[in-house]
Design goal:
The longest helix is centred in the first third of the chain and has 15 residues. The chain is an alpha/beta fold. It contains twelve helices and twelve strands. The protein has two domains: 142 residues, Rossmann fold (3-Layer(aba) Sandwich), CATH 3.40.50; 157 residues, Glycogen Phosphorylase B (Rossmann fold).
Length: 318
């Protein structure tokens, strides 16, 4: 079967949408299909379209639906689709949802956050990550990693601000990996490093380096104010890396309601308290790790592949 897989993220980008598209393309090829990954649909023959981002890919989605309305169309909903554009620019997002034969959500709470009329189309596909063996942590520092680009949705400096509240005796150190999407964010990160010896921003690095840092870190913080289902959580769980996260639907929908490491998004003091507990209380750090391991089966390649196989079978193209 010929599959057109559309993503707004350009080639060689380290954007999460691009990584998702390439991983899905690999899964679909292993299932025996021919997959073309592109930024748009150029009208090339396809038996199925899979489009990431209802809002950004709206033109491609509409064009495919007009040209071949009898062929299945799958739209994957991102965090900005669900938690921004539904409100700020709803027409393209809702039009894409209407065109779709199936919608993909990346976490277990998506159904509550889209119009009820589309809930029957929704299927959840958890993103997978390759297992990662732990390495020895740095002994002189309690290293906390933040993996995420610097943009508003990520609230990217929250862990740095929380680290400022640590007592002088703390070994807390925040390593931040991610590209600044605007010059203002780069300037803010540089200024934070100058003022805060507990914070180091390393910019955008290769995925292999992200995995190396995750393997040795004691903890990961995901401070976002909106997420569609961050693959970095899958990566952390696969690395047996404990996670502290803002209590937003996209993270609760991956880590589960009973995860012990949530704080209210934007609450610096609450995050600082959790970081202090993780550093000082081995039992709390162990509980964070155990909570991740309880969810680990959701983020395996076999689980993600099975979900795709089932979705294609539903559409009669498996």
């Amino acid at each position: 079967m010929r599959i057109a897989l559309v993503t707004p993220a350009p080639p060689r980008s380290l954007n999460g949408n691009r990584n998702t598209a390439l991983r899905w393309a690999g899964i679909l090829r292993r299932l025996g299909h021919r997959v073309q990954v592109s930024l748009d649909w150029d009208g090339a023959p396809a038996d199925l379209m899979v489009a990431l981002h209802a809002w950004r890919s709206a033109a491609a989605i509409a064009a495919f639906d007009r040209a071949v309305p009898d062929r299945p169309l799958v739209v994957a909903l991102t965090g900005t689709d669900i938690y921004r554009f539904q409100a700020s620019d709803p027409a393209p997002t809702l039009a894409s949802m209407r065109c779709a034969d199936r919608l993909i959500g990346l976490h277990d709470r998506v159904a509550a956050d889209i119009p009820a009329a589309f809930a029957g189309k929704l299927r959840v596909i958890h993103q997978s990550a390759a297992p990662l063996r732990r390495t020895a942590p740095r002994t002189r520092r309690f290293e906390v990693v933040v993996v995420g680009h610097l943009r508003d949705e990520k609230d990217p400096l929250r862990a740095a601000l929380a680290a400022r509240l640590a007592p002088a005796s703390s070994r807390l150190a925040v390593t931040h990996l991610g590209k600044a999407h605007e010059a203002a964010w780069a300037a803010a990160a540089e200024a934070e490093m100058a003022a805060n010896p507990r914070y180091r921003w390393r910019g955008e690095v290769a995925h292999a380096e992200v995995r190396r840092v995750m393997a040795r870190a004691r903890l990961m913080v995901l401070s976002s104010i909106m997420e569609g289902g961050a693959n970095v959580i899958s990566e952390a769980v696969a690395a047996d890396l404990p996670v502290i996260a803002s209590a937003i639907p996209g993270s609760i929908g991956l880590l589960g309601d009973d995860h012990p490491g949530y704080y209210a998004a934007g609450d610096t003091a609450a995050l600082a308290q959790l970081l202090a507990r993780a550093e000082r209380e081995p039992a709390f750090l162990a509980a964070l790790g155990a909570a991740g391991r309880r969810r680990a089966r959701l983020f395996t390649r076999d689980h993600e592949t099975a979900a795709w196989r089932a979705l294609l079978a539903e559409l009669g193209v498996g």
